[in-house]
Design a protein that fits this description.
The protein has about 325 residues and is α+β, with helices and mostly antiparallel strands. The chain has 10 helices and 16 strands. The N and C termini lie far apart (about 55 Å). Pfam families: DUF3991, Toprim_2.
Length: about 325
C-alpha cells in the first residue's frame, strides 16, 4: 500500500478539481494527479512522482520539511501509517517491469541531467523500466538477450533513510552473480568499458557516444567480487576485445579498484587485453556531465604504467602545495 496523493490533497485542503480519474490543480493548470496510478505530473515544471515528491514540489520545501508534513499527515490519518514504509521497497525478485514512467524520466533527466533522447532510446530498447513505486529499474540482459538481473534506483531523495547515496539503491534478489547492467554497440567487439554504476555508464554513453562503435559498457554496481565480474563477463563473449577500459569513480575506492586490477590476470595467460584507465576530473562521470550538459567534455586515458606516474605526480604536487 502506497501513500495516497488524493487523501493528502483532501487532508491539506488543496484546490484541486476532479476530472474523471484525475485531479487537476486550480492554481497550476499543468499539475495533475492520476488517482489510479497514484502519482502526479507537473508538465510545466518537468516534475513527476509520488506523494513525497509532490509535497516537495508543491510547497518548494526541503527534504526535512517534507518529512515533517508527511509525519503530520500520517498522524491524523491512521490508515496511512502502514504505507510510510511502502514508499521504500523491500528486495523483490527479478522479473518483467513496466516501461519507464514519468517519475523515472523526471529523475534521470531533471536530477541526473541525462538527455531525454538517450533515455527515450534506452527505454525503447528495454534497458530501463519502472516498478510499482516509480523506482527506475535497470534491466541486465545476457548475450542471448535473456533478462538475468536488475538494479533498482529510487527516485525519491531522502538522506535520512538513505544517508550513503541519498536515495534507494538495490540489486534485485535472484540477479545473476558476477554480472551487471550492460549496453552493446554495433560493430566488431573491440572495447569493454567498465563502470561502477548504471548512472555513470549512461553519463559516459551520452558524453562519448561517438567513440563507442564496437564497444560494450558494463556496470559493476551489483558485484561484490568486481574482478571476477569482469572476468566472467568476458568469458561469455565469443572473442576478447582488444582493449579493456576501467572507468571508476575518481576517489579512493576507484583508485583501489585500479590497483587491484593491476595485480590480477584476467582470463588466461594466453588471452589478454590491453588495459586502459579512463579518468574523469570530476568525482564520477555523472558529476562531470552535469555542469556542462552540452559539452565539450574532457577526460584522460592512460595505460596502467602511465596512470601510476600520473597518480605519483599528483601526490607530489599535493605535498608541495
Amino acid at each position: 500500500m502506497a501513500l495516497e496523493l488524493a487523501d493528502y490533497v483532501s487532508y491539506a485542503g488543496l484546490p484541486f478539481k476532479h476530472e474523471g480519474r484525475y485531479l487537476r490543480s486550480q492554481e497550476h493548470d499543468s499539475l495533475i494527479i492520476d488517482t489510479r496510478k497514484n502519482y502526479f505530473i507537473w508538465n510545466s515544471q518537468g516534475l513527476a512522482g509520488n506523494l513525497s515528491q509532490f509535497i516537495k514540489a508543491y510547497y518548494g520545501i526541503s527534504d526535512r520539511e517534507m518529512h515533517f508534513r508527511l509525519k503530520a499527515f500520517t498522524k491524523t490519518n491512521p490508515q496511512q501509517k502502514v504505507a510510510v514504509k511502502a514508499d521504500y521497497t523491500t528486495k523483490s525478485a527479478v522479473g518483467p517491469v513496466a516501461p519507464l514512467d514519468a517519475a523515472g524520466m523526471a529523475y534521470l533527466t531533471q536530477y541526473r541531467h541525462l538527455d531525454s533522447r538517450l533515455i527515450t532510446f534506452a527505454r525503447a530498447q528495454g534497458l530501463l523500466g519502472s516498478d510499482g513505486y516509480h523506482n527506475v529499474i535497470f534491466n541486465w540482459f545476457d548475450a542471448a538477450g535473456i533478462l538475468v538481473g536488475q538494479d533498482v534506483q529510487g527516485t525519491v531523495i531522502n538522506r535520512q533513510r538513505c544517508p550513503k547515496h541519498g536515495s534507494l539503491k538495490q540489486i534485485k534478489a535472484g540477479s545473476k552473480p558476477h554480472y551487471g547492467f550492460n549496453v552493446r554497440f554495433r560493430g566488431t567487439f573491440r572495447h569493454l568499458y567498465v563502470f561502477e554504476s548504471p548512472i555513470d555508464l549512461l553519463s559516459y554513453w551520452q558524453m562519448y557516444v561517438r567513440e563507442l562503435s564496437g564497444s560494450q559498457l558494463l556496470s559493476l554496481s551489483g558485484a561484490s567480487a568486481k574482478m571476477q565480474t569482469i572476468n566472467d563477463y568476458l568469458l561469455t563473449q565469443p572473442a576478447l576485445p582488444a582493449y579493456l577500459h576501467l572507468a571508476p569513480d575518481n576517489d579512493v575506492a576507484g583508485r583501489a579498484l585500479i590497483e587491484k586490477f593491476q595485480h590480477m590476470r584476467l582470463i588466461t595467460p594466453h588471452q589478454t587485453c590491453q588495459n586502459l584507465v579512463e579518468w574523469s576530473g570530476a568525482k564520477d562521470w555523472n558529476a562531470q556531465l552535469q555542469p556542462a550538459k552540452a559539452g565539450p567534455y574532457t577526460k584522460l586515458t592512460f595505460d596502467m604504467q602511465t596512470f601510476d606516474q600520473f597518480q605519483l605526480f599528483n601526490k607530489l604536487r599535493e605535498c608541495l602545495s
